Amino acid sequence: MKEEKIADIVTADIRTASIFKKHGIDFCCGGSKILSNVCKEKKIKISKVINDIQKLDSNSKEKNYNKMSVNALIKHIIDTHHKYVRESIPTIKDFAKKVSKVHGKNNPETNLIYHLFLRLSDELIDHMKKEEEILFPKIRILVNKTYSKSVFFSYGTISNPIKMMEMEHESAGKVLREIEELSNKYTPPPSACNTYKALYNSLKEFQDDLHIHIHLENNILFPKVMKFDD
Protein backbone atom coordinates (compact mmCIF):
# COMPACT_ATOMS: atom_id res chain seq x y z
CA MET A 1 0.00 0.00 0.00
CA LYS A 2 2.85 2.40 0.78
CA GLU A 3 3.91 2.51 -2.87
CA GLU A 4 0.40 2.63 -4.31
CA LYS A 5 -1.10 5.70 -5.91
CA ILE A 6 -3.58 7.42 -3.63
CA ALA A 7 -6.23 7.40 -6.37
CA ASP A 8 -5.88 3.63 -6.74
CA ILE A 9 -6.44 3.11 -3.02
CA VAL A 10 -9.60 5.22 -3.07
CA THR A 11 -10.78 3.54 -6.26
CA ALA A 12 -10.50 0.14 -4.57
CA ASP A 13 -12.47 1.34 -1.53
CA ILE A 14 -14.21 4.70 -1.69
CA ARG A 15 -14.44 4.85 2.13
CA THR A 16 -10.71 5.53 2.29
CA ALA A 17 -11.48 9.01 0.95
CA SER A 18 -12.54 10.02 4.47
CA ILE A 19 -9.22 8.73 5.83
CA PHE A 20 -7.22 10.81 3.38
CA LYS A 21 -9.44 13.81 4.08
CA LYS A 22 -8.78 13.39 7.80
CA HIS A 23 -5.01 13.48 7.22
CA GLY A 24 -5.19 16.39 4.76
CA ILE A 25 -4.16 14.28 1.77
CA ASP A 26 -5.55 15.20 -1.66
CA PHE A 27 -7.05 12.08 -3.28
CA CYS A 28 -8.76 13.66 -6.30
CA CYS A 29 -6.61 16.14 -8.24
CA GLY A 30 -3.48 14.91 -6.44
CA GLY A 31 -4.48 11.27 -6.63
CA SER A 32 -1.68 10.26 -8.98
CA LYS A 33 0.92 10.69 -6.23
CA ILE A 34 2.38 7.75 -4.30
CA LEU A 35 1.17 7.46 -0.69
CA SER A 36 4.65 7.19 0.85
CA ASN A 37 5.87 10.27 -1.06
CA VAL A 38 2.92 12.39 0.03
CA CYS A 39 3.29 11.35 3.66
CA LYS A 40 6.96 12.27 3.52
CA GLU A 41 6.21 15.66 1.95
CA LYS A 42 3.51 16.45 4.51
CA LYS A 43 5.45 14.94 7.43
CA ILE A 44 2.63 12.52 8.19
CA LYS A 45 3.36 9.14 9.77
CA ILE A 46 2.39 6.69 7.04
CA SER A 47 1.78 4.02 9.69
CA LYS A 48 -1.12 6.10 11.06
CA VAL A 49 -2.71 6.42 7.63
CA ILE A 50 -2.35 2.73 6.85
CA ASN A 51 -3.61 1.77 10.31
CA ASP A 52 -6.75 3.89 9.80
CA ILE A 53 -7.34 2.26 6.41
CA GLN A 54 -6.87 -1.24 7.81
CA LYS A 55 -9.47 -0.56 10.49
CA LEU A 56 -12.13 -0.31 7.80
CA ASP A 57 -14.35 -3.38 7.73
CA SER A 58 -13.49 -5.15 4.49
CA ASN A 59 -16.84 -6.92 4.54
CA SER A 60 -18.83 -3.71 4.19
CA LYS A 61 -17.16 -1.93 1.31
CA GLU A 62 -19.29 0.60 -0.50
CA LYS A 63 -20.13 0.33 -4.17
CA ASN A 64 -17.08 -0.40 -6.31
CA TYR A 65 -17.28 2.40 -8.85
CA ASN A 66 -14.32 1.00 -10.74
CA LYS A 67 -16.42 -2.00 -11.76
CA MET A 68 -19.21 0.18 -13.14
CA SER A 69 -19.62 0.57 -16.88
CA VAL A 70 -18.81 3.98 -18.34
CA ASN A 71 -22.49 4.67 -18.99
CA ALA A 72 -23.51 3.65 -15.48
CA LEU A 73 -20.76 5.79 -13.94
CA ILE A 74 -21.82 8.83 -15.97
CA LYS A 75 -25.42 8.33 -14.85
CA HIS A 76 -24.28 8.08 -11.22
CA ILE A 77 -22.20 11.27 -11.48
CA ILE A 78 -25.11 13.23 -12.99
CA ASP A 79 -27.84 11.82 -10.74
CA THR A 80 -25.81 12.05 -7.53
CA HIS A 81 -23.08 14.67 -7.70
CA HIS A 82 -24.34 17.09 -10.35
CA LYS A 83 -27.75 17.00 -8.67
CA TYR A 84 -26.17 17.67 -5.25
CA VAL A 85 -24.20 20.65 -6.56
CA ARG A 86 -27.24 22.22 -8.22
CA GLU A 87 -29.42 21.72 -5.16
CA SER A 88 -26.80 22.95 -2.67
CA ILE A 89 -25.65 26.11 -4.42
CA PRO A 90 -28.76 28.29 -3.78
CA THR A 91 -28.78 27.46 -0.05
CA ILE A 92 -25.06 28.06 0.43
CA LYS A 93 -25.27 31.31 -1.55
CA ASP A 94 -28.07 32.49 0.72
CA PHE A 95 -26.15 31.56 3.87
CA ALA A 96 -22.94 33.19 2.60
CA LYS A 97 -24.73 36.40 1.63
CA LYS A 98 -26.41 36.74 5.03
CA VAL A 99 -23.22 35.99 6.97
CA SER A 100 -21.23 38.43 4.86
CA LYS A 101 -23.83 41.16 5.37
CA VAL A 102 -24.14 40.69 9.13
CA HIS A 103 -20.59 39.68 10.10
CA GLY A 104 -18.48 41.07 7.25
CA LYS A 105 -17.35 44.14 9.16
CA ASN A 106 -15.92 42.22 12.13
CA ASN A 107 -15.05 39.09 10.17
CA PRO A 108 -13.90 40.34 6.75
CA GLU A 109 -12.98 36.82 5.61
CA THR A 110 -16.73 36.13 5.28
CA ASN A 111 -16.90 38.72 2.49
CA LEU A 112 -14.14 36.93 0.62
CA ILE A 113 -15.78 33.56 1.18
CA TYR A 114 -19.06 34.88 -0.23
CA HIS A 115 -17.46 36.23 -3.40
CA LEU A 116 -15.29 33.14 -3.86
CA PHE A 117 -18.34 30.89 -3.61
CA LEU A 118 -20.23 33.03 -6.13
CA ARG A 119 -17.35 32.56 -8.55
CA LEU A 120 -17.10 28.84 -7.81
CA SER A 121 -20.82 28.25 -8.28
CA ASP A 122 -20.84 29.99 -11.66
CA GLU A 123 -17.83 27.95 -12.78
CA LEU A 124 -19.34 24.66 -11.61
CA ILE A 125 -22.72 25.27 -13.27
CA ASP A 126 -20.95 26.03 -16.55
CA HIS A 127 -18.63 23.05 -16.07
CA MET A 128 -21.47 20.59 -15.47
CA LYS A 129 -23.38 21.94 -18.46
CA LYS A 130 -20.38 21.29 -20.70
CA GLU A 131 -20.05 17.77 -19.33
CA GLU A 132 -23.73 16.93 -19.72
CA GLU A 133 -24.27 18.55 -23.12
CA ILE A 134 -20.91 18.00 -24.79
CA LEU A 135 -18.41 15.67 -23.12
CA PHE A 136 -20.65 12.93 -21.73
CA PRO A 137 -22.67 12.52 -24.96
CA LYS A 138 -19.41 12.24 -26.91
CA ILE A 139 -18.15 9.66 -24.43
CA ARG A 140 -21.34 7.62 -24.82
CA ILE A 141 -20.97 7.67 -28.59
CA LEU A 142 -17.33 6.65 -28.30
CA VAL A 143 -17.87 3.70 -25.96
CA ASN A 144 -20.99 2.54 -27.80
CA LYS A 145 -19.11 2.77 -31.13
CA THR A 146 -21.98 4.60 -32.81
CA TYR A 147 -19.90 7.06 -34.82
CA SER A 148 -17.61 7.57 -37.75
CA LYS A 149 -14.32 8.24 -35.96
CA SER A 150 -12.78 10.26 -38.80
CA VAL A 151 -15.74 12.65 -38.73
CA PHE A 152 -16.63 12.64 -35.04
CA PHE A 153 -13.12 13.38 -33.80
CA SER A 154 -11.99 15.62 -36.64
CA TYR A 155 -11.16 18.23 -33.98
CA GLY A 156 -8.84 15.88 -32.11
CA THR A 157 -9.09 12.99 -29.69
CA ILE A 158 -11.37 12.73 -26.68
CA SER A 159 -8.33 13.50 -24.52
CA ASN A 160 -8.58 17.19 -25.42
CA PRO A 161 -11.95 17.91 -23.75
CA ILE A 162 -11.02 15.59 -20.90
CA LYS A 163 -7.87 17.59 -20.21
CA MET A 164 -9.97 20.76 -20.19
CA MET A 165 -12.34 19.26 -17.62
CA GLU A 166 -9.39 18.20 -15.46
CA MET A 167 -8.04 21.76 -15.56
CA GLU A 168 -11.43 23.05 -14.45
CA HIS A 169 -11.49 20.47 -11.64
CA GLU A 170 -8.13 21.80 -10.46
CA SER A 171 -9.47 25.36 -10.55
CA ALA A 172 -12.55 24.44 -8.48
CA GLY A 173 -10.40 22.57 -5.97
CA LYS A 174 -8.13 25.59 -5.61
CA VAL A 175 -11.05 27.92 -4.84
CA LEU A 176 -12.37 25.55 -2.19
CA ARG A 177 -8.92 25.30 -0.63
CA GLU A 178 -8.91 29.11 -0.37
CA ILE A 179 -12.32 29.01 1.32
CA GLU A 180 -11.13 26.27 3.67
CA GLU A 181 -8.14 28.38 4.71
CA LEU A 182 -10.19 31.56 5.12
CA SER A 183 -12.72 29.71 7.30
CA ASN A 184 -10.03 28.11 9.48
CA LYS A 185 -11.01 24.68 8.15
CA TYR A 186 -14.70 25.51 8.45
CA THR A 187 -14.45 26.38 12.13
CA PRO A 188 -16.89 29.17 13.05
CA PRO A 189 -15.89 31.62 15.79
CA PRO A 190 -17.32 31.04 19.29
CA SER A 191 -19.80 33.88 18.84
CA ALA A 192 -21.12 32.56 15.51
CA CYS A 193 -24.88 32.53 14.98
CA ASN A 194 -26.67 29.48 13.61
CA THR A 195 -26.53 30.75 10.02
CA TYR A 196 -22.77 31.22 10.36
CA LYS A 197 -22.44 27.64 11.64
CA ALA A 198 -24.76 26.34 8.93
CA LEU A 199 -22.68 28.07 6.25
CA TYR A 200 -19.43 26.48 7.34
CA ASN A 201 -21.01 23.06 7.77
CA SER A 202 -22.57 23.30 4.29
CA LEU A 203 -19.29 24.41 2.73
CA LYS A 204 -17.47 21.48 4.30
CA GLU A 205 -20.07 19.01 2.99
CA PHE A 206 -19.87 20.69 -0.42
CA GLN A 207 -16.09 20.30 -0.52
CA ASP A 208 -16.27 16.66 0.62
CA ASP A 209 -18.78 15.85 -2.11
CA LEU A 210 -16.74 17.65 -4.76
CA HIS A 211 -13.64 15.67 -3.81
CA ILE A 212 -15.53 12.40 -4.43
CA HIS A 213 -17.08 13.87 -7.59
CA ILE A 214 -13.67 14.84 -9.03
CA HIS A 215 -12.13 11.52 -7.99
CA LEU A 216 -14.80 9.57 -9.86
CA GLU A 217 -14.13 11.54 -13.02
CA ASN A 218 -10.36 12.09 -12.94
CA ASN A 219 -9.32 8.72 -11.58
CA ILE A 220 -12.01 6.30 -12.76
CA LEU A 221 -14.22 7.64 -15.59
CA PHE A 222 -11.61 9.41 -17.69
CA PRO A 223 -9.02 6.58 -17.59
CA LYS A 224 -11.78 4.13 -18.62
CA VAL A 225 -12.75 6.36 -21.54
CA MET A 226 -9.17 6.77 -22.75
CA LYS A 227 -8.97 2.99 -23.27
CA PHE A 228 -11.66 3.32 -25.95
CA ASP A 229 -9.82 6.13 -27.75
CA ASP A 230 -7.22 4.07 -29.60
Keyphrases for this structure?
0% strand, single chain, mainly alpha, 70% helix, 230 residues, 9 helices, Butyryl-CoA Dehydrogenase, subunit A, domain 3, 2 domains
For the residues shown, what is the average pLDDT? 86
Structural class: mainly alpha
Rg for CA atoms: 19 Å
Summed up, the helix count is 9
Relative helix content: over 70%
Q: Quick one: biggest sheet?
A: none
Write down how many β-strands occur, each being a DSSP E stretch of 2 or more residues: 0
Strand content: under 5%
SSE arrangement, N to C: HHHHHHHHH
What is the count of distinct domains? 2
What does this structure look like?
The chain is mainly alpha-helical and 230 residues long. The chain has 2 domains: 6-60, no CATH class; 68-226, Butyryl-CoA Dehydrogenase, subunit A, domain 3. Helix content is 70%, strand content 0%. The chain has helices at 6-12, 16-22, 35-42, 46-54, 70-103, 109-144, 149-152, 159-182, 194-226. The model is unreliable at 150-155 (pLDDT under 50).
List the helices and strands and how they pair.
Blueprint: H1 6-12, H2 16-22, H3 35-42, H4 46-54, H5 70-103, H6 109-144, H7 149-152, H8 159-182, H9 194-226
Helix pairs in contact: 1-9, 5-6, 5-9, 6-8, 8-9
Give a quick precis of the structure:
This protein is an all-alpha fold and 230 residues long. The protein is 70% helix and 0% strand. The protein contains nine helices and no strands.
